[in-house]
Amino acid sequence: MSLTEDLAKLDELRRNGALNEAEFQQAKERLLGISMRGTPLVDAFNQLRRSRSDRWLAGVCGGLARSTGLESWAWRLIFAVLLLMGGMGIVVYVLFWIFVPEE
To answer: pTM to 2 decimals?
Structure first.
């Protein structure tokens, strides 16, 4: 069997309820020969959520504050400085807005 077929069968088992999400991830990691668990950067990114309570626009800075321990006003300042230095702040903020789920 090819790798694609094996992954499709795993996904089918997950959709049918034979595997829960954790079992699916373990089987997929075993099949691919990789393990992303325990990597601090991956764990931090997976836990990142936009805040519903600490927000001015989309909750990105509030979510980053909760995940990193740095105050939300500091994240707002960082994005504002990045915005003034070539406009990267708005690009990064919008990407976080799009790809980071809300809590």
So the answer is: 0.55
- Give the CA-trace dihedral at 46, 51, 56, 62, to 10 degrees: -70
Rounded to whole angstroms, the Cα distance separating 91 from 61 reads 14
- Break the chain into its structural domains and give their ranges: 3-35, 41-99
Is residue 81 helix, strand or coil?
A: helix
Q: DSSP state, 51?
A: -
CA–CA gap between residue 39 and residue 87 (Å, rounded) = 31
* Per-residue CA distances from 102 to 21, 69, 93, 96 (Å): 20, 18, 14, 10
Cβ–Cβ under 8 Å, residues 62 and 55: yes
pLDDT at 77 (0 to 100): 92
Over residues 21-66, the pLDDT tens digits come to 888 888 888 777 764 555 666 666 677 787 788 778 888 888 888 8
